[in-house]
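Replying to the earlier thread about multi-chain prediction with a worked example.

Input:
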Amino acid sequence: MKLCKTIFIITTAIVFAACTPKFNEPDLSTGSINASDYLAIGGSMTAGYSDGALYDEGQRNSYANLLATQLKNLGVGATIFKIPYAQSSIGMGNANNARSILGNRTDCQNVVSLGPVKIASQGDINVFSNNVYNSQGPFHNFGVPDLKSIEIDINGYSNPFYQRMASSGTSSVLYDAISRNPTFFSLNLGLHDVLKYALKGGASDNITPVSGPIGFGFEASINNVIEKLTANGAKGVIANIPSIKSMAYFNTIAWNALKLDSLTAANLNLYYGALSAPFSFSVGNNGFIIQDTSQFLGFRQAQEDEFILLNVPLDSVKCYKWGSLIPIPDRYVLTASEINNIENAINDYNTVLKNISETKGLAYVDVHSLFNKVKNGFIYNGVTINASFVSGGFYSLDGLNLTPRGNAFLANEFIKSINDKYHAIIPQLDAMKYPGVIFP
Amino acid sequence: MNYLYKLFLIVFFYIPTSYFSQGFQVNLQGQKQQGMGGAGTAFMQDASSLFFNPGGTCFVNENSINLGITPTIARGAYMDATTNQVSHTNSPISTPFTAYALFQLKDSSDLKFGLAVYTPFGSTVQWEDNWTGRFALTRLELRAIFIQPTVSYKITKKIGIGAGFVYANGKVNLQKDIPLNDAYGNYAHAELNGKANGFGFNAGIYFQPIEKLSIGLTYRSKVNMEVKDGDATFTVPQSVANNFPSGKFTSKLPLPSVTTLGLAYKINNKLDIALDVNYVGWKAYDTLSFDYENNTEKLLDTKSARMYKNTFAFRGGAQYKINTNFTARLGLAYGITPVQNGYVTPETPDANRVNYTAGIGYQFGKHLKIDASFLFTHLERTDTNLETNLSGTFKTNVCAPGISIGYKF
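Result:
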């Protein structure tokens, strides 16, 4: 009887084993690159900025770290990818620099709705005061929030995110990176050269011009970076710049979200009619009234394809006549001509980036196309991914930077380019293993 | 005979080469037939003829009961084309069973009555946690039990006809993840659970022109399994619970018709061969839809194209009498998948298949007979699904050992 039982168990085990389908181990290879010393250089996205803050979980899920992890998984001797962790779950910074989470908020009309709320009234300010180069560095992730192409070679660059990871008080981001002797690098630089201007509604800051010397013009600054990084024969991958038109930050509040009933429309027509304003209101959706100093009246009605920024105080719009009786201030609005300037600069930057990638034989990642694809929406393993704020799964709660899932999609674009250019076989990430916005 | 031989050649060598066959059909309705590749429409052996050809049942000269079970181990795996990640199924062993009872009012009567209970459709697919295709499916359990009272009548010494009414009763349980992350890192989950039933029939003609040759033709009708009042349960983060109200749903799953032409030939007293050609009306499975009672902006009724095609399966086998008690069987079947390129899903990652089968039978005295069979098949399909964009290779191995006991009185 015992023998029978043993035979039964063995037979069952054999049947199960014989019945399990097998796949051949896929070939993996880093192709013609040496990935043992990979460095990432870039701005907020590279740093893992997310939900309006730099905090550990975001840094861990930066596309740069995800790419480094995939390289490491190939077992080609890549070292630990060192990141200047904020050592904060709130986010480093002062007032309003804490990260956002999704929560219930009550507006001026006492309506409760789900939206981004700050997890704390301020970020961990003390993080900035400690330089972590000696304790945690030297680093592999040179993603520095807000870093512009024209700032990367400034000695003693005063950006507090850089100051805490700098090798000395007089070093530059580029100097520190080159000191690491990278064998392979990713460069994702240029977005902040327009974004800082865009986030201020074009009311302050400047778009970096394409021409001009190192530290002033985009082209010379980028060429300087690439020359120095490739001086020892390092290979790399260069990302281009996405259109701001694709980002949730600029698309969430529609230009014509001023919804009026007949009485309000009539009253506004009466008011603006008395000023001889060249526009009128009707029942339903209307363009917001925005500040525009080029106009005789100093304001006008927003037009299609103009952006109201995500940081516009919604209570002012809902309860205090912003956008109807009070023009929305310039710093919350990107006008058509401002958008045009930004988009032209991005296109010019991308020409520069593409050209230098070709001259230097470097891989080129079309982030511009990825972000447009997200804007149009696509289906990934049964899931619809799009640029909708909160629900789209791609943009984090700041509307500009990405969720871990968005970072995984971005890392996959880098992997595809590296595979193409360097005949590498690096598997992509299953992006759905990385969360989108967390729902309470 | 020459003419039939030609017909056989035509059928066998002009197999349509487009994509077509098996889906969630389970062809495990008799151990003797299973040993012979599943062929048995023209080869009347015992009470299992109630399923294989009610027209031939009247040629089975006995009162008998036959009970069988085939524990089926299906092991599936999926390798994603972009990530190389391999996911496995850990589906439970399914147990298709058969119970046949055959009665005649008096010995050698031309009229016979029978009752057949069997499970011609069904599967349970359970994918491992967190697998790549979890938003398409995490678990599907389909069960359908057919109950078929049958009458069979021998018109002449050479021709028999028969028909049975089919009442089908089943259940469906479908689960998948919803792409909403909660605070604990889990995805939301949907479970659709319902009971279904439907009606159909199984009719056949059996013709024995000469002693050595028999021909069978059967038609098992389509059965529309309707799920009414199914329960849809959504486990979602509290903040979006209003968007996913749990409630009732309705759905429908067509179980396709099967038309079969079979031949059997007695080569000598020891050796029999049998061949079947199935034509399966899978085209009926055009769309899988779920109609929710409580719709919201986020919970809309769904319609997923399945676009199955009608398809063929070819089955052949031989039975050899080693001695008076002992019988050995060997068979082969080729099934063409009904699933077109672009429509392969984790529910039924179907592909063209070859079934390898073998069996033995042993007669204990006059009354008791035990038959056993073994089936192995391997499925492999690489596809990019048009609805989900899930892109990769599915592999499935099926091992199905079965046993039945027959008692004659």
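Chain B has one domain: 2-408.

Feel free to reuse this layout for your own posts.
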